[in-house]
């Protein structure tokens, strides 16, 4: 599962240069599904060759709980 996910985003990142606000769920050691929000940027050299990838990942667990509570109250 993770291999397919990372392969897909890597291809898109190389093609576009940046991916923002990609949502995914990962399984924690205790079995919980953890919602993660990713943003990634490709850093290329002068020749356009990929040198680095900067990735920011944010655990969205608290935000998802708040959304669920608002939805339940409606």
TrEMBL record:
Residues 20-72 form the PAC domain. SMART domains: PAC (SM00086). This is PAS domain-containing protein.
């Amino acid at each position: 599962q993770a291999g397919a996910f990372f392969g897909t985003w890597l291809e898109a990142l190389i093609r576009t240069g940046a991916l923002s606000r990609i949502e995914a769920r990962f399984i924690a050691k205790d079995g919980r599904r953890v919602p993660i929000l990713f943003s990634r940027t490709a850093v290329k050299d002068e020749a356009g060759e990929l040198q680095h990838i900067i990735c920011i990942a944010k655990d969205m667990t608290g935000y998802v709980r708040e959304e669920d509570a608002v939805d339940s109250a409606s």
